């Protein structure tokens, strides 16, 4: 024990140092883009750059339904909307299409109203508009009418505001076909600010607390992330507690001593702490998923102390450790190879995951190797019972596995193997997603799935290209089937367009004669339109609007949604409304590209994300294949070729069979399944390596099997508890690992047959 | 544009035209009861608007309609150009040259309050009216046949737009509604009681008939 003190001190210092470093440096990020591989196609680039910031990502939708699904009283909905409006968490709360409100029109927009529209001011136009105003004067009166008549008799500003509106569709309160009233709520904070979204949801709950007879549905990116954070956290905590209790029970049954809990936890926790520190030091931010997946993959580490404990039941722990270390080291190195391969697979998030697990596992093994033996108790020391019988490695179980796999494959032939839908990773129940879509349809928000993207190195070039596309879209509204669209050039025209419009504005003499002529046919005084004449005269002097002109404007957010610089190019995104036939639109766009050049392209966020997930999986599988060859080389360097091949074949066979079982039972596999299968491979390799060990002593062989049963039992119990969860991520992880490790153990155990010799 | 803020005036006038208010004052109570009895739900009007944006007063002729069953109020303008406004509980609809445009009433709390008041009035709940206006009633003439009801907004939101509203009548009929806006503009709406029931809906036959002396009924605001 005395010789252990320096090591314990060194270990404590390491952990303390790591804790200090973590406190100073650890920063979490929840940007999913970090976890995706480098985008290859332009569409994937746009996806990664705009993830979580796309049009309408700040929108929440509140569906209100009465008991018998009758339409709700309009006054009641309005009262609820008013109550929500008073909360600082929301920018806007709407229950129907907003009216253009002159008081809310931003200054740069109002000042430049005659330069932000293609509609040309002409004598005839002025006559027509004033005639309309005269008719409307029969119904409206008051200072607002007078102000607008004086400053903007053609209502150019109103027209501009209506084209900037976030929703389409005619007047009237929003309702779904099922008579649900829909409120559109724009949160003040962006969707990824989960804390702020939680406050927003709480504010909504407070308002609705007194409306207990209403059936309330809240959807939207922010609402989902807020409610899921809570659900997942409580579910994960609760299940982790039970999984830990199960694990402890297994350990107590297997080893019958209390300190085993401490000994089993030490390597795992030390590994996690040091692994996390390594990530925090190497990267600016640690992704939340790194931690979640990382802890899962680190699960292999729980097996290390179990091997030691099983083998120290009848001998000194230091001696036992020396006996099992070569095998443990082989398993560790193989697993490290696989995890390091993942670290170099491309995405920042995966690199973090690889570093975390590799460093964590190495440290766990080191703690087990050098720190645990002196701390391990020896219950009863006894001499072994003679030499162990030989172990024969057989292929029968493997052949059975492969046959089973083939049967499953043929039975389920044609069913998709992989689920590429990023939404499949989302634990949002499908019915809520359906609701969300029906609310969006009712409100007429911009299309979430499609945008048109244009890209140019120069800002003016991309603005010109956007204007050209805008005009083409307007000209052929029948052939692309869009209900509407919005482009940044609505507020930020190109310099050429600006100058053309400016030059087309009438001079003071001309305008004055137009005004005289137009006013003559109405009761209005020509002199009343003097501010209008001045505004036009000022417009003739105005320099083109730039991005800076909007820096303090409420329109800044709108502009940022439509235009951004990705470090190399300016990207202009045309927001689409009512994409009924994407194929038709895509075809129209390709014809447009052929006809007029440029690179306008339909970005399908869903398609791009799916291709991204597929690419990412393909990439990871390729990297793992290389890792597999390296592992085989490593194994055959240290052991006989036959044993290496048997071990790898057993692991691969078990993993493939587990995957096919999950696929047959639960449908296409997703990212979580893949991560879990990686852990299964790591566990399985250890099982195979230990079971195929050439043991010399009978007791050693018994201890090895004892260790493996304890390892497998703890894994199956702990992950089985997670697997029973309804949350897709926990369910996929838990069921895959529990099933996979059972299959691995069974295959390895049946394949490594002990041939007893009678003496 | 705050288009909706204009309608509240129009809507208010419409409702006043459809049925005047009752007040606590005994004389007013009796007068209003009489007016309610004789009030037609369809009635021609001539409206004159005065403003410094105008070369001369703008004159509009048309018809006001109120449908008791649906609560729909319509201001139909026939001359100089045809345009129509329909005010329902939830929205205002403007119909011009075959196109119809809808606006919501709900985003304007002050207008909602006003319309609720007038609706309450039509259902004979007069207390609501006093929530929004201070009422003053006077009678004049040898036989006290001429009367005037003055409405002054009680709340700032309303007072920002309207100074006061005068309702002038003779016996059981309302002759004119004079509205004085906060910006100095004013308008007089004269009702034409001589419209025969069988001529309703053919407003052009009614307009321009009958003696109306607007300045006599609606005094110009003091400068």
Brief write-up:
The complex is a heterodimer of chains A (759) and B (223). With 759 residues, chain A is an alpha+beta fold.
Structural notes for this entry:
- The complex is a heterodimer of chains A (759) and B (223).
- The longest helix of chain A is centred in the first third of the chain and has 35 residues, at 221-255.
- In chain A, strand 10 (563-565) and strand 11 (570-577) form a beta hairpin.
- Chain A starts with a helix and ends with a strand.
- In chain A, strands 8, 9, 10, 11 and 12 form a 5-stranded antiparallel beta sheet that branches. Chain A has a 4-stranded antiparallel beta sheet with strand order 3-4-2-5, sandwiched between helices.
- In chain A, helix 10 runs antiparallel to helix 12, helix 15 packs antiparallel against helix 29 (728-751) and helix 25 runs antiparallel to helix 26.
- Chain A has 29 helices and 13 strands.
- Chain A is of the alpha+beta class and 759 residues long.
- Chain B is of the alpha+beta class and 223 residues long.
- In chain B, 26% of the residues lie in helices and 37% in strands.
- Chain B has an 11-stranded antiparallel beta sheet.
- In chain B, strand 2 (58-66) and strand 3 (73-79) form a beta hairpin.
- Chain B is globular and about 50 Å long.
- Chain B starts with a helix and ends in a 6-residue tail after the last helix.
- Mean pLDDT of chain B is 70; it is low at 1-8, 17-24 and 195-216.
Instruction: Return the average pLDDT of chain B rounded to an integer.
Output: 70
- The number of helical segments of chain B is 6
Total DSSP E strands of chain A = 13
SSE class of chain B: alpha+beta
């Amino acid at each position: 024990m005395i010789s252990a003190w320096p090591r314990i001190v060194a270990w404590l210092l390491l952990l303390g140092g790591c804790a200090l470093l973590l406190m100073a440096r650890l920063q979490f990020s929840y940007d999913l883009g970090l976890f995706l591989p480098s985008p290859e196609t332009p569409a994937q680039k746009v996806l990664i750059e705009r993830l979580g910031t796309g049009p309408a990502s700040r929108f929440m939708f509140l569906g209100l339904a009465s008991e018998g699904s009758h339409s709700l009283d309009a006054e009641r909905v309005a009262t609820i909307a008013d109550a929500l409006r008073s909360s600082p968490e929301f920018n806007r709360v709407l229950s129907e299409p907003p009216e253009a409100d002159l008081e809310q029109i931003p200054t740069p927009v109002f000042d430049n109203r005659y330069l932000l529209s293609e509609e040309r001011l002409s004598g005839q136009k002025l006559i027509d508009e004033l005639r309309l105003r005269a008719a409307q004067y029969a119904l409206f009166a008051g200072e607002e009418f007078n102000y607008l008549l004086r400053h903007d008799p053609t209502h150019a500003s109103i027209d501009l505001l209506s084209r900037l509106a976030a929703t389409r569709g005619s007047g009237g309160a929003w309702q779904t076909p099922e008579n649900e009233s829909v409120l559109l709520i724009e949160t003040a904070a962006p969707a990824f600010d989960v804390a702020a979204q939680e406050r927003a949801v709480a504010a909504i709950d407070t308002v609705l607390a007194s409306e207990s007879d209403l059936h309330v549905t809240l959807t939207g990116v922010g609402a989902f992330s807020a409610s899921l954070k809570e659900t997942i956290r409580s579910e994960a905590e609760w299940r982790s507690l039970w999984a830990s209790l199960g694990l402890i029970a297994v350990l107590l049954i297997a080893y019958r001593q209390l300190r085993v809990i401490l000994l089993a936890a030490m390597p795992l926790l030390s590994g996690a702490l040091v692994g996390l520190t390594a990530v925090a030091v190497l990267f600016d931010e640690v992704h939340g998923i790194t931690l979640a997946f990382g802890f899962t993959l680190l699960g292999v580490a729980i097996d290390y102390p179990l091997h030691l404990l099983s083998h120290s039941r009848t001998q000194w722990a230091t001696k036992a450790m020396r006996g099992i270390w070569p095998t443990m080291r082989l398993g560790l190195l193989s697993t490290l190879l696989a995890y390091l391969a993942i670290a170099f697979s491309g995405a920042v998030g995966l690199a973090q995951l690889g570093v975390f697990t590799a460093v964590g596992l190495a440290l766990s093994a080191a703690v087990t190797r050098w720190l645990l033996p002196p701390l391990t108790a020896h219950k009863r020391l006894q001499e072994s019972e003679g030499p162990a019988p030989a172990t024969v490695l057989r292929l029968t179980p493997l052949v059975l596995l492969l046959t089973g796999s083939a049967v499953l494959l043929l039975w389920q032939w044609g069913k998709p193997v992989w689920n590429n839908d990023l939404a499949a990773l989302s634990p949002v129940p499908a019915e809520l997603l359906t609701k969300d879509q029906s609310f969006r349809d009712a409100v007429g928000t911009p299309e979430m799935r499609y945008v048109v993207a244009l890209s140019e190195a120069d800002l003016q070039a991309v603005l010109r290209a956007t204007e050209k596309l805008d005009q083409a879209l307007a000209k052929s509204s029948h052939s692309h089937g869009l209900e509407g669209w919005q482009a940044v050039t609505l507020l930020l025209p190109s310099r050429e367009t600006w100058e053309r419009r400016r030059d087309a504005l009438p001079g003071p003499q001309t305008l004055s004669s137009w005004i005289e002529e137009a006013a003559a046919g109405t009761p209005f005084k020509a002199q009343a339109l003097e501010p209008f004449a001045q505004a036009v005269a000022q417009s003739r002097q105005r320099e083109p609007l730039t991005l800076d002109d909007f820096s303090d404007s409420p329109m800044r957010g709108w502009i940022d949604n439509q235009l951004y610089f990705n470090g190399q190019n300016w990207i202009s995104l045309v927001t689409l409304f009512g994409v009924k036939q994407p194929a038709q639109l895509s075809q129209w766009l390709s014809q447009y590209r052929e006809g007029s050049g440029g690179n306008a392209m339909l970005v399908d966020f869903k398609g791009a994300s799916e291709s991204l997930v597929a690419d990412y999986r393909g990439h990871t599988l390729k990297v793992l294949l290389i890792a597999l060859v390296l592992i085989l080389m490593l194994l055959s360097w240290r052991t006989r070729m036959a044993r290496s091949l048997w071990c790898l074949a057993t692991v691969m066979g078990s993993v493939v069979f587990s995957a096919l079982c999950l696929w047959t039972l639960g449908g296409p596999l997703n990212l979580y399944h893949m991560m879990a299968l990686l852990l299964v491979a790591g566990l399985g390799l250890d099982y195979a390596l230990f079971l195929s060990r050439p043991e010399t002593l009978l007791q050693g062989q018994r201890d090895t099997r004892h260790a493996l049963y304890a390892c497998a039992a703890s894994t199956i119990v702990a992950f089985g508890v997670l697997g029973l969860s309804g949350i897709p991520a926990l369910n996929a992880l838990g069921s895959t690992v529990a099933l996979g490790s059972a299959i691995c153990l069974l295959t390895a155990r049946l394949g490594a047959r002990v041939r007893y010799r009678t003496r | 544009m705050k288009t909706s803020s204009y309608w509240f005036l129009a809507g208010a006038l419409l409702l006043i035209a459809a049925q005047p208010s009752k007040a606590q004052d005994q004389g007013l109570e009796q007068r209003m009861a009489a007016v309610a009895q004789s009030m037609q739900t369809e009635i021609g009007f001539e409206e004159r608007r005065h403003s410094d944006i105008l070369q001369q007063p703008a004159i509009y002729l048309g018809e006001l309609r109120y449908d008791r069953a649906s609560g729909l109020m319509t201001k139909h303008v026939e001359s100089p150009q045809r345009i129509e406004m329909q005010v329902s509980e939830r929205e205002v609809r403007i119909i011009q040259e075959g196109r119809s445009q809808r606006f919501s009433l709900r985003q304007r709390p002050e207008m909602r309050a006003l319309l609720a008041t007038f609706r309450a009035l039509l259902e004979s709940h007069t207390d609501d009216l006093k929530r929004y206006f201070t009422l003053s009633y006077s009678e004049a003439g040898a036989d006290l046949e001429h009367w005037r009801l003055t409405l002054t907004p009680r709340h700032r939101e309303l007072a920002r737009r309207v100074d006061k509203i005068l309702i002038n009548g003779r016996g059981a009929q309302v002759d004119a509604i004079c509205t004085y806006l906060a910006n100095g503009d004013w308008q007089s709406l004269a009702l034409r009681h001589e419209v025969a029931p069988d001529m309703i809906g053919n407003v052009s036959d009614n307009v321009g008939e009958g003696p109306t002396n607007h300045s006599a009924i609606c005094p110009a605001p003091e400068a």
